[in-house]
Automatic annotation (TrEMBL):
InterPro entries noted in UniProt: EIIC-GAT (IPR013853), PTS_EIIC_2 (IPR013014), PTS_sugar-sp_permease (IPR004703)
Biological processes, Gene Ontology terms: phosphoenolpyruvate-dependent sugar phosphotransferase system
Organism encoding this protein: Lacticaseibacillus rhamnosus (strain ATCC 53103 / LMG 18243 / GG) (Lactobacillus rhamnosus)
Stated name of the protein: PTS system IIC component
Keyword Iron: no
Compartments, record wording: Cell membrane
PROSITE patterns, sorted: PTS_EIIC_TYPE_2 (PS51104)
Record membrane topology: Multi-pass membrane protein
């Protein structure tokens, strides 16, 4: 059995999770440059009334900086990378407005001021494709949906980050033929690391909080007290049990997929609690847990492939910045880094910047498909928001379907 596993599996990339990647990305001076550009873009959109969202989630700018730096690594110049970052950044802000009524629904609070521009929600268009297929092919499965809070309660400790770390440590120890003492040590080290990843990440979020508050104060002063949606990090939804139930179920599924997925080089560890995956599933499916698990299992390979593809860049950047704790040999990455589609596009744009004709064609087709899919998703979200409005809920005119088209017709 072990011979078969070792013969067919070569998962040599170390999965550090998102927190070390954020630290590495914030270590680049380009991240502050991209931050300044995106703050200016957000303010311009606000002044032009193209959005109602003020993005104060300064910390998570690192996701878009990561995308820009990845494009540069593969051959793009700073100008091309900046245009790509602005393009995705504008779509993120549009998406934050589109999602606002759904957030209100999920929180059962229509006075809620919060939304998010987090990159993980740019998976919404892909998820919605599968959600619509679910509507057509398997609508009857919804009647078997179950209470996510009860599932979490039943799983308890055995589905926690600590327990999953123990399972992974034992698994890795067994396939490497270590003795019982070494396996036990490895299991507890893996469990401790999984617990610490989220704690360490919270330190960096707190570190940029004063900067976020400064941006918010400046915008409120300049916009004369206009009521805005406040773009925060995604955890304001963390109270929804579906996020954690789906993550608990998807963790072993991701491990199994990683073992058999062609082209994957990551053994999930730091990112195995799929917080880069489940929040978007919650928004699109509106908490239908069976859909979240099925669609999540389908999309997980995208994250594993993207993590494998970006591993050389992450490793190179970490060593160039002399980041501590980076192994002298081998590659590092994250198995559930948000924005896998954006990573693929960044690689294509970077290679296209070298002048290779086929790469230029591939990059152009990828950008066209990405944009078309987003605007189809926008159309579907506007229809959803119109239904909220028809039910008497307060929804901004620019994010619902009928009102927008009615205004256009009257202008004609």
């Amino acid at each position: 059995m072990f011979f078969i596993i070792e013969s067919f599996i070569n998962l040599s990339i170390t999965d550090l999770g998102w927190a070390p990647l954020a630290t590495i990305t914030w270590g680049s001076p380009y991240t502050l440059f991209f931050l300044a550009i995106l703050v200016i873009v957000n303010l311009i959109l606000l002044f032009l009334n193209r959005t109602n969202t003020l993005d104060v989630d300064i910390f998570d700018i690192w996701h878009l900086s990561f995308t820009g730096l990845l494009a540069i690594y593969f051959g793009a110049n700073l100008f091309v990378a900046t245009v790509l970052v602005i393009f995705i950044g504008v779509l993120k802000i549009i998406n934050s407005d589109l999602m606002k009524p759904t957030f209100n629904d999920l929180l059962d609070d229509w006075e809620n001021p919060m939304t998010t521009t987090h990159l993980n929600y740019m998976m919404n268009p892909v998820i919605m494709v599968f959600d619509k297929l679910f509507d057509k092919l398997f609508p009857w499965l919804d009647k078997y949906d179950f209470d996510a809070a009860k599932l979490n309660e039943k799983i308890g400790f055995w589905g926690s980050r600590f327990a999953i770390g123990i399972y992974l440590g034992i698994f890795i120890g067994l396939i490497s033929h270590q003795d019982i003492k070494s396996i036990t040590t490895l299991a507890f080290m893996a469990a401790t690391c999984l617990e610490l990843f989220s704690i360490i990440g919270s330190w960096f979020i707190a570190a940029v909080e004063p900067l976020s508050q400064g941006v918010a104060d400046f915008a409120n002063k300049r916009l004369g007290g206009r009521m805005l949606n406040i773009g925060l990090d995604w955890p304001f939804l963390a109270g929804r049990a579906e996020i954690w139930a789906a993550a608990n179920v998807l963790a072993p599924i991701m491990l199994l997929e990683a073992l058999v997925l062609p082209g994957n080089g990551i053994l999930p560890l730091g990112g195995i609690i799929a917080m880069g995956v489940t929040p978007a599933l919650l928004v699109v499916t509106r908490g239908k847990i069976i859909r979240m698990i099925v669609i999540g299992a389908i999309e997980l390979p995208l994250f594993l492939w993207a993590g494998t593809l970006s591993a050389p860049f992450i490793t190179h950047t970490a060593r160039a910045l002399h980041a501590s704790g980076i192994p002298a040999t081998g590659l590092i990455s994250s198995s559930t880094k948000e924005g896998p589609i954006e990573q693929f596009i960044a690689v294509l744009v970077g290679k296209a910047s070298k002048g290779e004709m086929m790469m230029i064609v591939y990059a152009a087709l990828a950008l066209i498909a990405y944009t078309a899919l987003f605007f189809w998703y926008r159309h579907e979200m506007m229809k959803r928001n119109q239904k909220y409005s028809d039910e008497g809920k307060e929804v901004a005119d620019d994010v619902k379907f009928v009102a927008t088209h009615a205004a256009a017709n009257s202008a004609d």
